Amino acid sequence: MSLSQQSNASEKGGRIALPCVTESPLTPKGTCLESVKIAIDAGYRHIDGAFVYYNEHEVGQAIREKIAEGRIKREDIFYCGKLWNTCHPPELVRPTLEKTLKILQLDYVDLYIIELPMAFKPGEAIYPKDENGKFIYHETDLCATWEAMEACKDAGLAKSIGVSNFNRRQLEMILNKPGLKYKPVSNQVECHPYFTQPKLLEFCRQHDIVIVGYSPLGTSRDETWVNVSSPPLLKDPVLNAIGKKYNKTAAQVALRFSIQRGVVVIPKSFNPQRIRENFQIFDFSLTEKEMKEIEALNKNVRYVELLM
Length: 308
What we know:
Layout (H helix, E strand, L loop, with lengths): L2 H6 L1 H4 L17 H12 L3 E3 L7 H13 L9 E6 L6 H15 L4 E6 L4 E2 L16 E2 L3 H13 L3 E7 L3 H8 L10 E5 L7 H9 L3 E5 L22 H10 L3 H11 L3 E2 L6 H8 L8 H8 L13
Parallel strand pairs: 1-2, 2-3, 3-6, 6-7, 7-8, 8-9
Antiparallel strand pairs: 4-5
């Protein structure tokens, strides 16, 4: 199933995604493993991961254990992996994906995406910095990186390829590339009621590119990487009032809002109850009036500022 088919099938197939991942290597051992298994049992099939989350080994183990139980088949799972910033040079793209597959112990990923349009200096350091603590960047040719991504698809290592955190100009750079073989099937960006991305969403729709929304519930209040001056999304009175009407949480209303806009959502949680709650959004629909009320909440506020 392609990502666009997956997005269109949201109502029928329960294709809401769960990135049971964290950007910190400090997650207690086994937490991600158990969370992914709980999610699969709850009905999740789209799992969003990345090498820099440091837990793809647990994700792969969870998938294999559920396959062994007969709960799922490999083709039921839609796994997304990501190319990190230090691996943009074309000669590094396939080896990086092969490393991901080795960690996951899978033969292919369903989607492989360029995580960010900017590149860091290649090397062992995930976040290379100079003696002054500043990031060391690397001049990158996104079109050359994309050609290497296309080669991974041709080799059967990735069923589909896409991008993340790309703006319109960067997407057009790929779409207008001479000799383009495959266009990006998706663009993963921050998207939620306080940051609805209407212009980017419309551009992507015109080019049949699916928007995958990360932080669809806002984020944690970790000031090391989050703009904590932004108000907590889930305390919004409009979301809570609508939730009360349907006997749903503000989180469920926010997820339902994105789904009805055609945005694939990837809520993150390690809490078993919230993992299950986040999936229970297919038994109600928001009215056109409610959708407009939520759209009006847009503040053009990013929680994940990506200051790097």
